[in-house]
Amino acid sequence: MKKMIELSNVSKSFHSLKVIKKLNINVKEGEVVSLVGPSGCGKTTTLRMIAGLERSEGQIKRDFNHPAFIFQEPRLLPWKTVLDNILFVLFDRISSQDKMVKIATYYLKLMAIDQFGGYYPAQLSGGMRKRVAIARALAIEPDLILMDEPFSDIDFPLRLLIIDHLDEILKKEGKTVLYVTHDIREALLVSHRLYILTNKPMQVKEELFIQRNLRKRGIENSDFHELEKHVIEILKEESLKEFFKE
Amino acid sequence: MKIMMRNGYKFLGIIFLFILWEFLSFIYPPILIPSIERVFSSLIDLMISLEFWKDLGYTLGRVLVGFGLSLLIGSVLGLLAGFSKKIYEVIKPIFTVVESIPPIIWIIFAVIWFGLGHMPVIFAIMSIVTPIIFINFAQGVMDIDPDLIEMARAFSVKRSTELRHLYLPSITGYFFSSLSIGLGFTWRVVIMAEFIGSMTGIGNKINWAMLNLTTDQVFAYTLFIVSLGMLIEFLLVKPLSNYSQKWKSR
Fold this sequence. Notes:
The complex is a heterodimer.
Chain A: E1 3-14, E2 17-28, E3 32-36, H1 43-51, E4 57-62, E5 67-70, H2 82-90, H3 97-110, H4 126-139, E6 144-148, H5 156-173, E7 176-181, H6 184-190, E8 193-197, E9 204-209, H7 212-217, H8 222-243
Parallel strand pairs in A: 3-7, 3-8, 5-6, 6-7
Antiparallel strand pairs in A: 1-2, 1-4, 8-9
Helix pairs in contact in A: 2-3, 2-4, 3-4
Chain B: H1 2-27, H2 36-47, H3 50-83, H4 85-100, H5 103-114, H6 118-142, H7 146-154, H8 159-197, H9 202-211, H10 215-244
């Protein structure tokens, strides 16, 4: 499998503060890889560097053509309807209006939100807006999806539903995903591989491979809990470092 | 029903003004405050004369040219200043100075420089309205949500698509607000400028009516101009603004 992203000794500083120090990670085609780490350790910055929204030192190999970004906030255009928000990212890619609408409707349907195509974002709930943002990302038929804690402000039961649904779509469409979250359970449920990150300056603390059957059996499984506990312990340790730094 | 009630209250205020006017006309002589009937009859007399429409044509023409030029210059400079902090820093103090000079001074300068005619009026409108348009446009661009711009970049949206679907709708509210405020000022300034700096137009006719002590005509011209300004605002600017901002009411 080809590596779609490879970061070699990537560093990043904001003024004099070193946020990321010699980071080495990769994402292979068809994989869902998660970055988990303490809050504010530099996960989002890493995603932004990969998307080219932030400068960096070191080497980032990008072997993808159509990346899509799902931000923490839905970032929908408030003056456009749900359908028009999807069309906004398709205008420059597809010339036929009919085809554009067909694609947008298909992905809205996939996220079970097609009946709200004529609604404005302000008329939707937080969870629905997130689903629109996901549909928008899928609509450009990306070869790589970068996700930045997209479900952070949705309650857990709804989050599980959306994640299950998204997991199915990703599997069916064979998408490659780099997923940033501080929710360990979420990361374990969706990922093939997980990078546990240290506090600032951020580095890889541990790389975990998650077996498919473990993900399938999910949160009722005792092995799942063991793994979850292991990750929590590491992150707790890392978060404590920040506390006692002074 | 609620909307009807709200509009009803607005009309109530205007009806109160008319009652007050009529009441005062009973107390004071017509040369100070003419009655409503007198003013309306005077207005009808004026409106059947060709001269009235000629003067209105002059006034409207000046409004159109003065406001149009202000819109053009103010919007172009405002957009540039919105995109570049440096340009904003350079232009803003110039407009602050221009804005703080009273309109009457601009009219006097214009009469000195260009003589009586169209120019003092157009110049006065531009000196007041251009800074308003400029600041609204600059603020509109500066207030565009940077998260949305970043989203568009992350999805590799072309600059032209970004301009049409992101920048333009973002500043629509500011555009209509500058249109509404600018037009309001234009009506006020155009009459004053014609009063002092022109031999034609409604403002000049108000000057003559004042000199001839025909106060009913002063009132009639004023009533006509105020009604015209309000009609343009409520029948054109407001509906267009509401249409373009309909997503906000959802």
